[in-house]
């Protein structure tokens, strides 16, 4: 199952559209529908790669995007100026009855996938590069706050949660 764009995707897309990515090399980790990779292209990125553990995602991304089937950075061998990741971020107990749980479930606390991503992402970041990812108020992200210095760049209140788009620098 491919995660279809929802409020979180559109918040992320809007943020990317506000960036000047001229000449930048970008990676959309967990690309799913390819909406964020497409936004990077539209914002002027010179090169865009998209990675996803689900091979079906390759059918969704533009021909202008290099697709890599990968479990996070497992098959990524380049460095980037911008790495974005709209991760599965719901805690296991909050995804009951949701179709396609693998696209939603971020682990027991909701942040385990994000933590794995962040533990590897800085190794693939060019000097001065930026990482942008999403956190949910439903997840326990205290450990991420302790481990990483980040800035909340966008927020979105939904009826059941608050989403935080965060930016991390090297």
Q: If helices are DSSP runs of H or I spanning 4 or more residues, what is the number of helices?
A: 5
* Spatial gap, N to C terminus: 33 Å
Provide the CATH superfamily.
Answer: Vaccinia Virus protein VP39
CATH class: Alpha Beta
Largest sheet: 7 strands, mixed
Average the pLDDT over all residues and give the rounded result.
Answer: 91
Give the strand line-up of the largest sheet: 3-2-1-4-7-9-8
Note the run of SSEs as H and E.
HEHEEEEHEHEHEE
Enumerate the spans where pLDDT stays under 50 for 5 or more consecutive residues: none
- What is the count of β-strands? 9
CATH topological fold name: Rossmann fold
What structural class do helix, strand and pairing data support?
alpha/beta
Strand content: 25-35%
Any idea what the radius of gyration is?
15 Å
Helix amount, in percent?
10-25%
Number of domains: 1
* Form type: globular
Instruction: Please state the second-level CATH architecture.
Output: 3-Layer(aba) Sandwich
């Amino acid at each position: 199952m491919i995660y279809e764009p929802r409020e979180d995707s559109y918040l992320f897309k809007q943020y990317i559209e506000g960036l000047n990515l001229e000449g930048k090399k970008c990676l959309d980790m967990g690309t799913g529908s390819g909406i964020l990779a497409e936004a990077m292209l539209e914002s002027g990125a010179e090169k865009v790669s998209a990675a996803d553990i689900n091979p079906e995602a390759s059918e969704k991304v533009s021909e202008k995007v290099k697709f890599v089937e990968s479990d996070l950075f497992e098959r990524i061998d380049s460095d980037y100026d911008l790495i974005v990741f709209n991760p599965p971020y719901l805690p296991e107990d909050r995804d009951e009855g949701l179709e396609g749980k693998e696209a939603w479930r971020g682990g027991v606390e909701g942040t385990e996938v994000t933590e794995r991503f962040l533990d590897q992402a800085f190794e693939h970041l060019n000097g001065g590069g930026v990482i942008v990812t999403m956190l949910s108020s439903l997840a326990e992200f205290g450990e991420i706050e302790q481990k990483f210095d980040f800035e909340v760049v966008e927020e979105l209140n939904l009826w059941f949660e608050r989403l935080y788009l965060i930016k991390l620098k090297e």
